[in-house]
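Troubleshooting log. The previous run stalled partway through. Resubmitting the same two chains, unchanged.
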Amino acid sequence: MSAVEPRGGASVTAAPDSDGSPSGAREMTYLEAISGALREEMRRDETVFCLGEDIGAFGGAFKVTEGFVEEFGADRCLDMPLAENAIIGTAVGAAVEGLRPVCEMQFSDFISCGFDQLVNVAAKLHYRQGVAVPMVVRLPSGGGFSGGPFHSQNPEAWFIQAPGLKVVTPATASDAKGLLVSAIRDPNPVCYLEHKGLYRHVRDEVPEGEHTVPIGEARVARSGDEMTVIAYGSSVHLALRAADELDEDIEVLDLRTLAPLDRESILGSVRRTGKALVAHEATRSCGVGAEVAALITEEAFEDLDAPVRRLTAPDVPIPFSPPLEQAVLPQLDDMKEACRALLAY
Amino acid sequence: MPQMGVSVAEGTIVEWRKRPGDWVEADEPICDVTTDKIDVEIPSPANGRLDRILVEPGATVPVGTPLAEIDAEARPGEAHPDEHNGKQPAAVETEDAVEDGDRSRFYSPVVRRIADKHGIDLSQVSGTGIGGRVRKKDVLAYIEAREGVSDGPPEPVLHIESPYRPDEAEAPEPSEAEGEEAPAAPAGAPPPGLDELIGPSRSEPMSPMRQAIARHMTESRRTAAHCTTIVEADFTHVTSRRAELRESMRRRGVSLTYLAFVAQATVEALQEHPRLNASVDGEEIVYHEDVNLGIAVALEGGLVVPVIRRAQRLSLEGMAAAIGDLAERARDRRLDPDEVHGGTFTITNPGQFGAVLATPIINQPQVAILDLEAIVKRPVVVEGADGDSIAIHPMSYLCMSWDHRALDGADAARFLGDVKAHLEGWGDAR
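Second attempt completed without errors. Output:
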């Protein structure tokens, strides 16, 4: 896993993703980066607190908040009842009162129970009343571990349909930290999708100390001239492996933020390569791929040398059965085949 | 593709009026086909549901090619089988790899744009994509090969490194010395494009008819040795004869035009000069017994030349009626495909719009085309028993382009002289 490539304002030359003075970098897993970022922000700012199911004494289903109760006390690491609407609703109230809550959905699938508080209350308060709602909802998402239909979904497109919500989807440990810090400091609600398959399998250099990644900026994960794979989350890694194994001149653009989309980076890359594959693990219809494909055809039609293609899961629930789940979720071979077909076009 | 006349070998689909799944009645038009010059509605051969379209608009196929499949078993109102065949979605929905087939004539938007910008004939570029498709890299390689080592990349590089922001003001600023000069393009910048000089414009594809005209006209120019001979004819007699006959013919539904007189005089002269009622076939000249007279009819966006078969049989009234009928049906696009083929001589009549001279292009494989220009009043010298005088007469130029491969200037002049004599002496001998 390569380190995050610098990307940011033109004036920044060293460590451009950071607006502070990094004291070095340390290799860690995606999960450690999330946990570390949350801990650092809670240490830095005492208005930051977290709430969720089993996050206190148990340390969270995925151990993101392990040791938090000991360090910050039970009133900054709240164990909540199994009621997502209460978790989100409590966070909205706290945010309006000036705190910076970080909610943990045990699985992103469970957000449906807190949906009204999120999309109707949190997302629209600033629009309706000019009130800032600085809250983060952490959403462990994604499949690949036989979690079945209730524990494997990729619900990002739901949130994109609710104006007022920002949606970020880090693919690397470094971005996991940088985007979580930016999300916590953002004055309005941010949905932070952390892919469970990346937790312990992705490991890269993470800047120590102050490290933020601007919301709304994609990054070129691999540069190339023949085609662009536009991906985010787990699909970035699939695309990078496919490009390496095919040994072709493929550009991989990691969106990092889905709302707002980094239109300039998408269009800039596709205008250069003329071919685009949009890849995600989420289902196909009205997904991010559809949005990106429409953007490209609207704005860069005259630069296209091939139809914009999508590699996604089909519009079906995620099966429990491992072979069926493999058949549903895009695999490395599918990514390679999709790239080959577009390159040959 | 049905047989639309003995002379038609292929047709091009203009558009489908029905879509797959639509119910069609027998003899209901299901699509429009254009042949060389004529558009034809294709009727459905049976009742049923249009199952599949096999030939897309724009494609040209030989007569006999199936155009579509009609399910004659289907009943009206029934759902299309595709709507409930329970097809499962593929496990991972990438688009199928494109099927085989020739794609050498399909050009993507970026390929077209680059070709336009560099004035490239894409048929000269060989494609390395699927089905021989010309890829962006193919056209870029072609430009590089054509222009030698690249003098500047054809596509502006939008970024060197991310982020993708185009560099501003790359062109060097003009030096002080040049400061006062006219707005010359800065060094290194491309000269202003032709597009800028032309100003706003709009492009539209040539219609099938325009393409056919373009093809036939350039082909004729390329093959025939065109010469144009012009005589001036006095229409005094024709004018008075027309005035006499016009009203009675109008009552019989016939419009007596000057063109009918010229056609009649031409047919007569052609029978006296068979060298002009001929075609060139390779190294042979074919002389035709019948005069099959083509009459050019201007249409919206093009022209068509329906043919009056065995025109030598027709009286003046018959000729006038035939011209009127063909012109009307040509404008309504109701001609049969066979009616625009097999002419042996053509008359064109742009004079109706006021032109006085033209050099028409021969309708191949014929050997000549006569052009009737506007009939205008001119002062002319009249020879009388008591000397010359000047009078005002209706006059016109008869311009004939002819093929020097098949005949010579003297043949053309003699023929035109006889046409002129027939017109000027109209009524004398009849």
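Takeaways: Chain B has three domains: 10-84, 101-153, 208-424. Helices of chain B lie at 109-118, 136-146, 194-198, 208-223, 236-251, 258-272, 316-331, 409-424.
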